[in-house]
């Protein structure tokens, strides 16, 4: 994998928010990668980064077997920024001491800047007070040689430490979270001012580098790309097409479970606008027939995933002669999670849309988005000329509407849901709310309710509307619509969609709910 030489390595000690550190560094225009502490020395040797950031952790440095900074990093002389556990482990390994906190600090705290240092230059001045986000039990009680304290908080006399000679800085607070208002500026300061990086890592640069890399990997070979209709596979297809043109064939297995107008939009965009060779397989009948009688959510996913692979494989064989399979794998899928509990985490839902495909087809993978976060993929899509409204679409699950129809999926129920969902999304766009919502959709419930329309009694379906805000889909809050928005949408849906006579709104957050109903 190629990567810019001007980079920062983030050593992950298992914090929930390590990915946010990578986000903040990249927002500062500097390429960054995360490596678990167990393999950080190899990543350090491979990347030759110009700086290292140490993440937080649920562990305590006082516990036997807790994570450590690889010695090679400490011996290398590159600047280091430690955050929370990162601060504690840095002090611990360099000769300071950490004490088990009797009472920790959790949440907002105010710190006072007691000395200048390069990390603060141009951001915080001596004597100022600033709000930060703390979340720690243990704390540093004696500095390692060479360090001096530069900020204090009521619960941490050593809230920030600095060693300008070695360019080592460490903070007790979490600067990667939005609750620390100046956190992004401090991280940018570390990357540019302390490590001396230029901050010119842009999507245009990434695009050019990836195109060269794809050409080199593929040579004169042929690539097959499975389009799902979603943003990631679309961006992959356009990028690879730009690199190798007609050597790419896209296969769009249309399961008939897309939102209103979406399949047509994908086909038109790819065939007519980009002129990308596209096989459009209308497999709606196959999928609906296979879904008949299935009501269990995991069984639906399993069937859809399996049928998708079968159809894709058959179509790929017809195209023939492809050596490479393109996939829209993103960085969050690639980052190895660091676990202190041993076993793998519990599977809540299996998101295996194309899982198993590469093994079975015995093809080499082309995964040009492996280093990107979702919004960076969107930015790359816009850079490649995809319409902003297309790349800005809310996330949509691989199994499509099938998991938004609890109970049995039928053509009639898909059509009812599509109409209602389209009205809901149209109103959201009209109200200018689309981009502030992470995901909004309707769910057709397996419940009937009594209503009255005109002079008649109705006995029809109930629809649930859902809209959530989120930063990564891992946690979510129900979106609070302004004033009369929901009543207006409910009225439109009941009036315009035959088969629905009642509309409800889902206020559940995640956790304990999930975003989708199935
Ligand atoms: P949940 O419902 O688990 O959803 O809170 C988190 C995010 O994942 C999407 N999702 C899926 N995506 N295949 C997918 O590709 C799936 O089976 C699937 N199930 C949920 C969901 O839409 C949300 O963005």
Automatic annotation (TrEMBL):
Pfam family, one: NAD_synthase
Oligomer status and interactors: Homodimer.
Top-level enzyme category: ligase
EC number: 6.3.5.2
Residues where ATP binds: 228-234
Record protein name field: GMP synthase [glutamine-hydrolyzing]
This protein's encoding gene: guaA
GO molecular function terms noted in the UniProt entry: GMP synthase (glutamine-hydrolyzing) activity
Active site per UniProt: 84 (nucleophile), 174, 176
Ranges for domain GMPS ATP-PPase: 201-393
SUPFAM superfamilies: Adenine nucleotide alpha hydrolases-like, Class I glutamine amidotransferase-like, GMP synthetase C-terminal dimerisation domain
Keywords: ATP-binding, Glutamine amidotransferase, GMP biosynthesis, Ligase, Nucleotide-binding, Purine biosynthesis
Reaction(s) this enzyme catalyzes, per UniProt: XMP + L-glutamine + ATP + H2O = GMP + L-glutamate + AMP + diphosphate + 2 H(+)
Cross-referenced InterPro entries: Class_I_gatase-like, GATASE, GMP_synth_C, GMP_synth_GATase, GMP_synthase, GMPS_ATP_PPase_dom, NAD/GMP_synthase, Rossmann-like_a/b/a_fold
Chain's role: Catalyzes the synthesis of GMP from XMP.
Domain of life of the native organism: Bacteria
Pathway annotation: Purine metabolism; GMP biosynthesis; GMP from XMP (L-Gln route): step 1/1
Upper lineage: Bacteria, Pseudomonadati, Pseudomonadota, Alphaproteobacteria, Sphingomonadales
């Amino acid at each position: 994998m190629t990567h810019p030489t001007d980079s920062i390595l983030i050593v992950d000690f298992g914090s929930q928010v390590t990915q946010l550190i990578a986000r903040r560094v990249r927002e500062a225009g500097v390429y960054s990668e995360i490596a678990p502490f167990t393999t950080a020395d190899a990543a350090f040797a491979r990347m030759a980064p110009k700086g290292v950031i140490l993440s937080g952790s649920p562990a305590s440095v006082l516990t036997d077997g807790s994570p450590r900074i690889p010695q090679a990093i400490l011996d290398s002389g590159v600047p280091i920024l430690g955050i929370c556990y990162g601060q504690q482990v840095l002090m611990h390994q360099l000769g300071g001491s950490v004490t088990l906190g009797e009472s920790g600090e959790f949440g907002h705290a105010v710190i006072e800047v007691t000395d200048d240092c390069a990390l603060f230059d141009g951001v915080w001045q001596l004597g100022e007070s600033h709000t930060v986000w703390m979340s720690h039990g243990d704390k540093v009680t004696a500095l390692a040689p060479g360090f001096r304290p530069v900020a204090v908080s009521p619960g941490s006399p050593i809230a920030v430490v600095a060693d300008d000679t070695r360019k080592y800085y460490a903070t007790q607070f979490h600067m990667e979270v939005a609750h620390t208002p100046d956190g992004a500026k401090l991280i940018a300061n570390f990357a540019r001012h302390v490590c001396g990086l230029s901050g010119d890592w842009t999507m245009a640069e990434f695009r050019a580098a990836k195109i060269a890399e794809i050409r080199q990997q593929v040579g004169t070979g042929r690539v097959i790309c499975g389009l799902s209709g979603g943003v990631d596979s679309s961006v992959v297809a356009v990028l690879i097409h730009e690199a190798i043109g007609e050597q790419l064939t896209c296969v769009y297995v249309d399961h008939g479970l897309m939102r209103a107008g979406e399949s047509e939009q994908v086909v038109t965009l790819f065939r007519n606008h980009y002129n990308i060779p596209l096989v459009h397989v209308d497999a709606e009948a196959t999928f609906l027939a296979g879904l008949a009688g299935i009501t269990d959510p995991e069984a639906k996913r399993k069937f859809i995933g399996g049928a998708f692979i079968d159809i894709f494989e058959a179509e790929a064989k017809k195209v023939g002669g492809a050596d490479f399979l393109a996939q829209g794998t993103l960085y969050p899928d690639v980052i190895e999670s660091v676990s202190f509990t041993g076993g793998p985490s519990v599977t809540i839902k299996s998101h295996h849309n194309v899982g198993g495909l590469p093994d079975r087809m015995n093809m080499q993978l082309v995964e040009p988005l492996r280093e990107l976060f979702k919004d960076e993929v969107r930015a790359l899509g816009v850079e490649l000329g995809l319409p902003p409204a297309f790349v800005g679409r809310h996330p949509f699950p691989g199994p499509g509407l099938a998991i938004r129809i609890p109970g049995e999926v039928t053509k009639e129920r898909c059509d009812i849901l599509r109409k209602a969902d389209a009205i809901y999304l149209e109103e959201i766009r009209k109200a200018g709310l689309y981009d502030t919502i992470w995901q909004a959709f309707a769910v057709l419930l397996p419940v009937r309710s009594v209503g009255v329309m005109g002079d008649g009694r109705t006995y029809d379906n109930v629809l649930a509307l859902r809209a959530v805000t989120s930063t990564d889909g891992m946690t979510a809050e129900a979106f609070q619509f302004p004033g009369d928005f929901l009543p207006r949408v409910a009225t439109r849906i009941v009036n315009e969609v035959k088969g629905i006579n009642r509309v409800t709104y889902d206020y559940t957050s995640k956790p304990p709910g999930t975003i989708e109903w199935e």
